[in-house]
Amino acid sequence: MNWSDLIPLFAFVRQRDRQTTPAVPEGGYKRLFDQAFDGAMVLDVSNGRIHLANQRAADILGHSLDALTTKSIFDLHFPEDLDRSSLRIADAWASGGLVYDDIPFRAADGQSLPVECSVKVTEHAGRPSVVLYLRDIRERLRLQQEIAERNALVELQNNEMLSGLRYAQGIQQAMLPALSQMRSAFHDAFILFKPRDIVSGDFYWCGQVGQKSILAVADCTGHGVPGALLSMTGITLLQQIVIGRAITSPAHVLGELRSGLLRSLAHQEGDSHVRDGMNIGIITYDRVTRECEFSGALCPLYIVRADGGGLEEVKGDRLPVGYHEGIMREFTPHLIALAPGDRLFLGSDGFADQFGGPLGRKLKTAGLKEMVMRSHSGDLCRQGRALEHGFLEWKGGLDQLDDVTLVGVQV
């Protein structure tokens, strides 16, 4: 299609719409052009000649106003763009107007000039014409290119950061005990471990010293990268305290862990400490005497008896392992006699603090206890799967708010 092919279409529609599409007087054009911020031209559809143009159009294209009004659309487009230009005019006529930016203009110096065109169809001196507004979009395209380059850089940085986090996730998971290790220390075990982010501020740890099995579950300050760094510090300190120094009393371990963590987090100047730390529960089970010792720092122990005695809660001390403004008291030891089949549960507060359910409320510890008792039938592995399903069902479509860890062991 070329410009001359549009004449029959213009004639037909002009005859059809003569009562509703009056011609615009030339004086109206001139006043409009003189006041327009964009370049403006009136083009004759039959031959592409420029009837009128404003000074802004001449400035954009690099012509004088007198020179511009002697030219045609064929002088302002590159040959390869003329067919597309005629198609745009046809589309504009069919719809009453059109905006497009995919056809450049040829400036006076022969360079390609990207513009945004807005076209309206009308008449001029009884001839089918179009009013064409053009806006120089070089600066817009430059800014778009700059934004695209910045977005590409941000995406690259995000990918590099994500790759680093994935690598850190692998390191953190390698430091956590395997389920087989937990089951060799106790009769049976399950692990429910759901970080909110890629890496977690929760951790669990298991070790054996002689005939004693030691289990710890901790919730460090924060989540994500800060929490993960603190969790790895906690794992390293537990390894040194329990395995390296053979300290197995949970209260003693918590005291040593607190001292070591405060030393690790102390500022280089002065004696002040950052207010980071962890809530942690530790149990030590003697596989010969079947006695269990527990101490907790803002972390309870739940026990479900095999004889159907219900769920018992042993509260930990209201002391964190970390900075504390009050008196640094010793942690309280709790001695517990266990029978074969008894189950013990340690976890972070992420499970109980999760919003969900039909009313979007917190599950709370009462809801967690109810889930533990409701899922108690069957083996421990099946109970772990039931608790994970219960958590996901409770959360529904809501976001996970915190790291979630729950470890269950059976003696």
CATH class of the largest domain: Alpha Beta
What is the approximate shape?
A: elongated
> What is the percent of helical residues?
25-40%
Q: Average pLDDT across residues?
A: 88
CATH architecture name of the largest domain? 4-Layer Sandwich
Distance between the termini: 86 Å
CATH topology of the largest domain: Phosphatase 2c, domain 1
Based on helices, strands and strand pairing, what is the structural class?
A: alpha+beta
Number of domains: 2
What is the tally of helical segments?
12
Quantity of strands, as a count: 20
> Stretches where pLDDT falls below 50 for ≥5 residues?
9-25, 268-273
How much strand content do the residues show? Answer: 25-35%
Largest sheet: 6 strands, antiparallel
CATH superfamily grouping of the largest domain: PPM-type phosphatase domain
What does this protein structure show overall?
It is a single chain. This protein folds into two domains: 139 residues, PAS domain (Beta-Lactamase); 236 residues, PPM-type phosphatase domain (Phosphatase 2c, domain 1), CATH 3.60.40.10. 38% of the residues lie in helices and 26% in strands. It has twelve helices and 20 strands. The chain starts with 6 loop residues before the first helix and ends with a strand.
